Amino acid sequence: MIQIKHVNKSFGSVQVLKNIDLEVQKSHVFALIGPSGAGKSTLIRSINALESIQTGEIIVDGISVHDKKTNINQLRSDIGFVFQSFNLYPHLTAVENVAIAPVQVKKVPKDQAEEKAKKLLTSLGLGEKFGSYPSQLSGGQQQRVAIARALAMDPKVMLFDEPTSALDPEMIKEVLDAMRSLAATGMTMVVVTHEMGFAREICNQIVFMADGAIVEVAPPEQFFTHPKTERAKDFLSKVLNH
């Protein structure tokens, strides 16, 4: 579903992605983990061209993301993106936030889009919140509205950039539960996360990054019990013991 080939990216003189190669299979969930500044968010943002790349190629479902000829809006409608900060429209209700893109981008009739929005919100435990504005919702609820908004476009892939890092601890679980149920439907997902329990339980592969490079890729059980590299061992000793 996603092929990343020899991707390099620099901000000025700082190389933030170093020769990245990765393949994400359809219906698999990949976790990108590693210390701050490892390049995880830059990598995930380059998958839907929120970041440009200098060299290499990223292909999503057969389409080259950074090719000048690619219709980027069309491509982005196939790639759901959930940000750290929910980025909801404050003046729109939960239903309106979810329905707006299908109406504007895909020209879906408004009543049809709102009907679908209600189904998605209900499936994410927000059946009572259709008419609520973002300011009336908790952080966890806002993030679930953001997930529903991404799903409303029927994406082929869902990207999550630290979706729980702006949340209070008790709200993290409700967002992770929503992502769990999404994974169970067979959605292809790439998740930048600090939630090691979630990564271990839900993901098919752990991609460990440090200093702009992929250091190790392994199934969760293998990565968490027998990491191959010293860098991964050092990282795990810090995050699993505190």
TrEMBL record:
GO molecular function: ABC-type amino acid transporter activity; ATP binding; ATP hydrolysis activity
Chief location category: membrane
Record InterPro entries: AAA+_ATPase, ABC_ATPase_HisP-typ, ABC_transporter-like_ATP-bd, ABC_transporter-like_CS, MetN_ABC_transporter-like, P-loop_NTPase
UniProt subcellular location: Cell membrane
Keyword field contains Cell membrane: yes
Pfam families: ABC_tran
Annotated coiled-coil segments of the chain: none
Top-level taxon of the source organism: Bacteria
Annotated keywords: Amino-acid transport, ATP-binding, Cell membrane, Membrane, Nucleotide-binding, Transport
GO CC list: plasma membrane
Membrane topology, as annotated: Peripheral membrane protein
Every ABC transporter domain range: 2-236
Family, similarity comment: Belongs to the ABC transporter superfamily.
Protein name: Amino acid ABC transporter ATP-binding protein
